[in-house]
Task: inverse folding
């Protein structure tokens, strides 16, 4: 039995795992876990990841959650090129440093635009007041400033002259607000150039393929949301709308 | 030149680093960055870490932020015993899995309790909101349930038979609510036993030493905030709480 990757390309970390595996020709079976259909709550998927989240990995009997852990596992098992997670102690530390900071700075805020602009209205029939989006975008702006000042600086990529896991995790996250029309690269030339370099390093075709769903998310306005999913999300949605 | 670790033991990730370095006899210079005096906002510290946060490391010209990155860096540079970050692929993945998951669960919710009970009153000069505290405790409870069911299960430690970076990072976070009077270990026998094992593995004396300040944090409520902090603290609180505002998975 081969490697199985449980993914929905709507999810940012899923895209990172997908791109990494494809780019490195890692053979895997794409197990689609459709989030809108509430498939993450199925008992069967719960056996793969009890946390009921994507991405998840199944390698024989070994299951693994958390995109960072999955990316590192794959990079080691399949001996991917050094630049993804450099063996040089200091460069490696720079990747670790970004991957850690990412969780509560870029990842925390970038994904919310999708919820506020598209998904909450879809799920509840209500729109949130504009201040809610502004609040999140303001916080994201602070994080982007830190990203440019501390992590990117004047380098082509976060760690230096080559793409690493750090750039990959960052870019997929930043494509989320793009998908809902928050033009975060506009007025940020340095970030915009970095995005182009990352796209180039990944390969434009693969990058586009991974991002097709999120870049066409507005077409989802007709989608049927699974009622069980609505039920699961109800308490969190109530909190978000307070 | 010896490694410099910029720490304030009121901060959970600082304690993880302190314990790890001491336990492994890693020679370092303890650079005290007193958060309550706003030292982290100084220009000088900004040269060590432009993000103005602790912990931070300085090793010659090399500076590094983020406790997880620093722990991994030290484990590699000083060749610490394998169990901290096992070379076995699957065990190592389990450590990575916990270290990743904990940011927005155990760490976040533990921080929220501390912010609600200690920092907000400090910033606004009023007693804490019982409702908000209960909400924060509820959120940590959910995370603790997942911790026990997914990460700990029936094993002595997160990865198996020996303590790893995962247990260390977890325990220092869980001591934060304890320090401000929320005994999250109460009625959780499995967690209590795990905590004892971790304390034993670290060494009781070192564990107590690292946690002395936070376990006496009640002394913080009467602190006079310096002017730099009076402006920064509310902004910090807002930043954390907006970022933390729960999003569906």
Result:
């Amino acid at each position: 039995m081969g490697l199985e990757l449980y993914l929905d390309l709507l999810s940012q970390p899923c895209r990172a795992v997908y791109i990494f595996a494809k780019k490195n020709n890692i053979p895997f079976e794409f197990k689609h876990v459709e989030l809108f259909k509430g498939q993450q709550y199925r008992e069967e998927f719960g056996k793969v990841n009890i946390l009921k989240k994507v991405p998840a990995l199944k390698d024989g009997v070994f299951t693994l959650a958390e995109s960072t852990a999955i990316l590192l596992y794959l990079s080691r098992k399949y001996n991917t090129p050094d630049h993804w997670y450099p063996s040089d102690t200091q460069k490696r530390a720079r990747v670790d440093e970004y991957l850690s900071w990412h969780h509560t700075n870029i990842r925390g805020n970038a994904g919310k635009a999708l919820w506020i602009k598209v998904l909450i209205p879809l799920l509840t029939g209500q729109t949130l007041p504009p201040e809610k989006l502004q609040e999140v975008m303001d916080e994201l702006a602070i994080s982007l400033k830190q990203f440019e000042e501390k992590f990117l600086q004047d380098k082509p990529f976060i760690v230096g002259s080559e793409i690493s896991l750090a750039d990959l995790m960052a870019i997929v996250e930043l494509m989320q607000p793009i998908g809902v029309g928050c033009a975060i690269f506009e007025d940020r030339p340095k970030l915009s150039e970095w995005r182009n370099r990352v796209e180039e390093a990944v390969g434009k075709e693969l990058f586009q393929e991974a991002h097709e769903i999120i870049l066409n998310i507005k077409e989802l306005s007709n989608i049927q949301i699974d009622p069980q999913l609505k039920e699961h999300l109800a308490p969190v949605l109530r909190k978000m709308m307070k | 030149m010896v490694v410099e670790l910029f720490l304030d033991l009121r901060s959970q990730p600082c304690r993880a680093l302190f314990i790890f370095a001491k336990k492994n006899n890693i020679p370092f210079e303890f650079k005290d960055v007193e958060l309550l005096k706003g030292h982290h906002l100084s220009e000088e510290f900004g040269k060590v870490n432009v993000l103005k946060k602790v912990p931070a490391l300085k090793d010659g010209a090399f500076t590094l932020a983020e406790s997880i990155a620093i722990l991994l860096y030290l484990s590699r540079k000083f060749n610490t015993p394998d169990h901290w970050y096992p070379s076995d692929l699957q065990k190592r993945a389990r450590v990575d899995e916990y270290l990743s998951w904990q940011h927005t669960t155990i760490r976040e919710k533990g921080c929220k309790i501390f912010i609600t009970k200690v920092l907000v009153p400090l910033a606004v000069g009023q007693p804490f909101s019982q409702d908000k505290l209960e909400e924060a405790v509820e959120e940590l409870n959910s995370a603790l349930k997942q911790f026990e069911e997914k990460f700990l299960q029936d094993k002595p430690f997160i990865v198996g038979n020996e303590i790893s970076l995962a247990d260390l990072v977890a325990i220092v976070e869980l001591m934060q609510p304890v320090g401000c009077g929320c005994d999250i270990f109460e009625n959780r026998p499995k967690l209590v036993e795990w905590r004892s094992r971790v304390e034993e593995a670290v060494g009781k004396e070192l564990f107590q030493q690292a946690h002395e300040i936070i376990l006496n944090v009640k002394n913080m409520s009467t602190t006079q905030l310096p002017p730099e902090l009076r402006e920064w603290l509310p902004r910090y609180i807002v930043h954390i709480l907006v970022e933390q505002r729960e999003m569906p998975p």
